[in-house]
Amino acid sequence: MKSFKFLALSVMIGAVLAFTTACGQSNGGNGASGQEQEQSGEENKQLEGNVAIDGSSTVYPIMEAIGEEYMATQPGVKVAVGLSGTGGGFEKFTKGETDFSNASRPIKDEEKKAAEEGGIDVQEFQLAYDGLSVVINKENDWVDHLTVEELQKMWVNSGEKVKWSDIREGWPEEEVKLYSPGHDSGTFDYFDEVILDGEEMNESAVLSEDDNVLVNGVTGDKNAIGYFGYAYYAANKDKLKVVPIDGGNGPVEPNNDTVMSGEYAPLSRPLFTYVNTAAVKDKEQVYDYAKFMLENAGALAEEVGYVSLKQEEYDEQLKTLEELKK
């Protein structure tokens, strides 16, 4: 009975709306203009096709959230988001296999050159900020903070296994178990640049492109330490401890304020996606997705645990997107 009443009510409302619309159209000054109707139609236009995205596992949670929200508004478009790492994503992108390439570091010169040789013009968009988080096991009760120099001593390859007591006097004489993103990860590249300073990583480290593997590794061993994007720490803070880092001005813990201000140094960084400009021009769904992405990246980045840009930064990038579409 409830369903029938609902149906009857819907029919009645539909009839009223139809009558009102008809009246509006017959009264030239009172109804929506042809231009307004056309704009409304454009906004509600249903698209079809595919949007192919790959790259950084750090950026993945943002793009996954954006993709899910977008497909709810455009069910005819299939958004596929992969996470083969920043370097792996650029390999696919420069071969023309994807429309967007997510990156937790800026594109390298050799990657730009590969794109050019493949006839691909690249546009960079910044999505959010991240505080690369150093994490330890919940049962670790001796580490209160680490300096950059201590991180270097721990992670740079010395040819020998490192014990906690080697890092600071009074700490346990137990081997440090290291967990790191893999070589295809932009997070690895960033850590290599600001912590390893180009030196080889400790060969005992367990490397994985999947940040969930790193989370499980650290949670499963009292002597473990690892690092990855802030969102993965935020999603697992009930079973991990984040380590404040002393970059020279005292220990600082990553959070929205310290990441955006750069106070969490040197492990604060921007997160990017790169788009094939030809895809923006030639595939309506790619342009529409890019527009939706920039309009919603701030809120969704915060939702998954990262730090949004200022609104004016997204607005400027939307202007850039419109220029690409011309």
Q: What is shown here, in short?
A:
The chain is α/β, with parallel strands linked by helices and 326 residues long. 47% of the residues lie in helices and 20% in strands.
Order of helices and strands: HHEHEHEHEEEHHEHEHEHEEEHEHHEH
Count of folded domains: 2
Helix content: 40-55%
Going by CATH, the architecture of the largest domain would be 3-Layer(aba) Sandwich
Label the overall shape: elongated
- Name of the level-1 CATH class of the largest domain: Alpha Beta
Strand elements, count: 14
CATH topology of the largest domain, what is it called?
A: D-Maltodextrin-Binding Protein, domain 2
The description of the largest β-sheet is: 6 strands, mixed
Number of helices: 14
Let me know the average pLDDT: 88
List low-pLDDT spans.
Answer: 1-30
Distance between the termini: 54 Å
Task: Please state roughly what percent of the residues sit in beta strands, choosing from under 5%, 5-15%, 15-25%, 25-35%, 35-45% or over 45%.
Answer: 15-25%
Rg over C-alpha atoms, rounded to the nearest angstrom: 25 Å
Cross-sheet strand order for the largest sheet: 2-1-3-13-4-14
Secondary structure class reads: alpha/beta
Please, what is the CATH homologous superfamily of the largest domain? Periplasmic binding protein-like II
Describe this structure in words.
The protein contains 14 helices and 14 strands. It has 326 residues and is α/β, with parallel strands linked by helices. The chain folds into two domains: 49-128 and 270-325, Periplasmic binding protein-like II (D-Maltodextrin-Binding Protein, domain 2, 3-Layer(aba) Sandwich), CATH 3.40.190.10; 133-266, Periplasmic binding protein-like II (D-Maltodextrin-Binding Protein, domain 2), CATH 3.40.190. α3 packs across α13 (284-304) and α13 (284-304) packs antiparallel against α14. The longest helix has 25 residues, at 2-26.
